What we know:
The protein is built from six helices and nine strands. By secondary structure, it is an alpha/beta fold. Helix 1 links the parallel strand 1 and strand 2. 33% of the residues are buried.
Amino acid sequence: xxxxxxxxxxxxxxxxxxxxxxxxxxxxxxxxxxxxxxxxxxxxxxxxxxxxxxxxxxxxxxxxxxxxxxxxxxxxxxxxxxxxxxxxxxxxxxxxxxxxxxxxxxxxxxxxxxxxxxxxxxxxxxxxxxxxxxxxxxxxxxxxxxxxxxxxxxxxxxxxxxxxxxxxxxxxxxxxxx
Length: 178
């Protein structure tokens, strides 16, 4: 089996402890590998299967919401990124696997880092474990109980030694295959 490579790291924003931990891991990987970190925010929350925030909005209302969310996204994560400048921000309109797959195809990321809110949490219309296991690129889940808990799908396990994460961090999770 060929070892996957990556040119950019993707992170799906979530304003929570696990989201902050996952961002920190994504940033650490980006810095260690000198790769771009692309931060994605979805107008409909992929972590909430009942979120229909934009369903009944007009096109102009959706556009205003997107501008507002992008500003919030940049203010929050730009500060967390500190002096690391190779960070991009993107507001996504579709909260499904399709949008992330499209971003993958246009090379906005090859490694995806997600906050692991809790076992069985929802993400993009399925459990986060099922999403990570079935997604076509390497996925790292961070959490749910502490920042050192890292879970890797089978594609991410192949990259793990070169991600710039300390072996001590791996011990906490013992690299879980989803």
